[in-house]
Amino acid sequence: MKIDLTDTTAGEINKALIEGRRAIGTPAVGMVLTLVIVTDEENAYDALRAASDASREHPSRTLVVIRRVSRTPRDRTGSRLDAEVRVGAEAGTGETAVLRLYGEVSDHADSVVLPLLLPDAPVVVWWPVTAPLNPAEDPLGALAQRRVTDTYAAEQPVRELAARAETYTPGDTDLAWTRITPWRSMLAAALDQVDCEVRSVEVEGEEFNPSCELLAMWLADRLGVPVRRSLSSGPGLTAVRMETTCGPVVLDRADGSLANLSIQGQPGRAVALQRRDTAELIAEELRRLDPDDTYAAALRYGVERLAMGADAVAALGGAPEQAAGKAAEDEVVTEVAVAESEAGTEEGEAERPTPNSLARKAASK
């Protein structure tokens, strides 16, 4: 059932939702959360379709917020709210309200959404494409327990990861992180099968893919070893190679669906590693509404730190022992420089070390 409302209010939308449920014979509210999708007209259809598929696992009230661009100064000074209410088969197992905001009301979307939230139910806000710089401080993001972004849709995904690390707030997550859940599970299971020490890791995937960077940062953070990022033609992640004291452990997926896991001394095996669609990704994120500490640790490891570790390995010919030694020397140089700066000179003037000066000292060792 579909109900169109023109120049309406939040109260009228709520009334239409109740009337729609009664008309199809389901007056009771069975939704477990409110999913707010903030998108544009171009991407609204795909996002709504993914949310509708995910609602089979998580019945929810879905509110789609679309800010319409005003073409004239007169339109920008006015305000209008149009809505499209969907219940029953049109909305999966939940209910949907598509909200189109015109004029000044588009700057106050939180005032429109707030009266439509399900009482005593969690709120999740999802930006399928363009997300705010700080989702937690966004007026809509402030209403939610979980805030879902997708750096893969950003113009500069790797730079977007750095921005996400700076503004991270518990409850933030990224579909680029969700995409690598099967990879993380498979790699953890592979290391459980061997009693070896990992010396170095190589993560191979297409360029400008934030999932590759996140997986590399997760491995570097958890294993404490140098991780090198290499490029391939894709699709997405294609391989992870780990050098261990017992030999190489390789997870290779060339076609985007079936991967081959090879461990030294064991027969190779084929494992299912299918690339998942957006509906599966958003459904996974809706399964847990608590902060993802593992994502936070990987994100805060830093793309820049990952690149520095890879450069150190490359400069030393890829020898992990030498790379570890160089890292230790750099740490000692940093500690000495900081101690000198705190002690100061005899005249009382301390020379504070800079990143460039520390790099020069490290290079001279």
Number of helices: 13
Helix vs. strand class: alpha/beta
| CA-based shape | elongated
Taken in chain order, the helices and strands follow as EHEHEHEEHEEHEHHEHEEEEEHHHHH
Task: Give the C-alpha Rg.
Answer: 25 Å
Main sheet: strand order: 1-4-5-3-2-6-7-8
- Compute the average pLDDT: 82
Q: Give the termini separation.
A: 73 Å
pLDDT < 50 runs, ≥5 residues: 316-365
Report the β-strand fraction as a percent range.
15-25%
| Main β-sheet description | 8 strands, mixed
Explain what the structure shows.
- This protein has 365 residues and is of the alpha/beta class.
- Helix content is 39%, strand content 23%.
- The chain contains 13 helices and 14 strands.
- The strands form two sheets. An eight-stranded mixed beta sheet has the order 1-4-5-3-2-6-7-8, sandwiched between helices. A six-stranded mixed beta sheet has the order 10-9-11-12-13-14.
- Strand 2, helix 2 and strand 3 form a beta-alpha-beta unit.
- Helix 8 (210-223) crosses helix 10 (293-301) and helix 12 crosses helix 13.
- The chain is elongated, with a radius of gyration of 25 Å.
- The N and C termini lie far apart (73 Å).
- The model is unreliable at 316-365 (pLDDT under 50).
